[in-house]
């Protein structure tokens, strides 16, 4: 099929036209947030669909019905994607959504509301690797080129939703007080039940230990890989081709070690360090 790649420019970021349009971005800007809405803010390839599995389970006391009967993009829709306009009225409270938007693009009603946000951060080197393979399987995106070429694209922000550093800076410095919880992909991999307890405390839920264990079991990489409502196997191969690379690919921290040469690593670390040098937060990753 023909590829538009990232041909849609919006407020300083690039997006693919298959999933985004100016109309849906305007719809997102006018979207009316409610105080009980829950949002996971995630830079692409940092665990978005993982949150689309976790949130309905946490919010429904571990009831498996949503994750077994509704595709991830309809059960916890993207704020900025075309699909939201179609299903917005069908979402029941508390509504759970995800967004890849940098903080500066969050709509006015979000700021006026008390909606809560879970921000998921992942090691940028693993994001880059995950994204490199995603560009190969997502037929609507441009070919990533060589790994070295893709490092440059990533560092220059010529990837979906712009620079990772801008995303992290914006959300880390957002003054949302107790409306925001920061969590990392790596913490979730290391001890998912502990991460789930942290999230449920933040959301004011009090699931039993049995429910936490049940949710954790249904949100493992292995289980999600077999869930047709979450593994993108419902999407035609012309759009996402798992024969090139599955969406749920490795699901581990540290895969970057198999991909970066020492020169690439030094170049990458130095660029990220430079971008973040004046920030007051420290990354939980060695640079
Ligand atoms: P890898 O490509 O490194 O495997 P997103 O949903 O934001 O696009 O992120 C996709 C990444 O999250 C992929 O990383 C995918 O495998 C990983 N992922 C999704 N669900 C996961 C889970 N339950 N456990 C660990 N990793 C998961």
Automatic annotation (TrEMBL):
Keywords in alphabetical order: Catecholamine metabolism, Cytoplasm, Transferase
Similarity field: Belongs to the sulfotransferase 1 family.
UniProt protein name: Sulfotransferase
Organism expressing this protein natively: Champsocephalus gunnari (Mackerel icefish)
InterPro entries referenced in this protein's UniProt entry, alphabetically: P-loop_NTPase (IPR027417), Sulfotransferase_dom (IPR000863)
Localization annotation: Cytoplasm
Cellular component annotations (GO), alphabetically ordered: cytoplasm
Pfam families linked: Sulfotransfer_1 (PF00685)
EC numbers: 2.8.2.-
Main location: cytoplasm
GO terms, biological process: catecholamine metabolic process; xenobiotic metabolic process
Stretches assigned to the Sulfotransferase domain: 35-277
Any one GO molecular function term: sulfotransferase activity
């Amino acid at each position: 099929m023909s590829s538009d790649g990232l041909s849609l420019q919006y407020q300083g970021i690039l997006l693919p036209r298959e999933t985004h349009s100016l109309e849906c971005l305007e719809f997102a800007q006018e979207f009316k947030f409610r105080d009980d809405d829950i949002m996971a803010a995630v830079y692409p390839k940092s665990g978005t669909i993982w949150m689309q599995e976790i949130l309905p389970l946490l919010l429904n006391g571990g009831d498996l019905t949503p994750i077994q009967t509704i595709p991830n993009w309809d059960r916890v829709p993207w704020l900025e994607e075309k699909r939201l306009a179609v299903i917005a009225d069908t979402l029941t409270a508390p509504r759970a959504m995800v967004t890849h938007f940098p903080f500066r693009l969050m709509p006015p009603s979000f700021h006026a509301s008390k909606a809560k946000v879970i921000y998921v951060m992942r090691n940028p080197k693993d994001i880059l690797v995950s994204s490199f393979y995603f560009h190969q399987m997502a037929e609507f995106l441009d070919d990533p080129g060589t790994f070295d070429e893709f490092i440059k694209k990533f560092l220059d922000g010529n990837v979906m939703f712009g620079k990772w550093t801008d995303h992290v800076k914006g959300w880390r410095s957002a003054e949302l007080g107790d409306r925001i919880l920061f969590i990392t992909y790596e913490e979730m991999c290391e001890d998912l039940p502990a991460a789930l307890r942290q999230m449920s405390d933040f959301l004011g839920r009090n699931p039993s230990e049995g429910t936490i264990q049940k949710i954790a079991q249904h949100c493992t990489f292995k289980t999600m890989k077999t869930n047709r409502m979450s593994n993108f196997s419902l999407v035609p191969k012309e759009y996402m081709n798992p024969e090139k690379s599955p969406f749920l690919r490795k699901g581990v921290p540290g895969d970057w070690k198999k991909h970066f040469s020492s020169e690439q690593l030094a170049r990458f670390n130095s660029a990220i360090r430079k971008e973040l040098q004046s920030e007051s937060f420290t990354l939980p990753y060695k640079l």
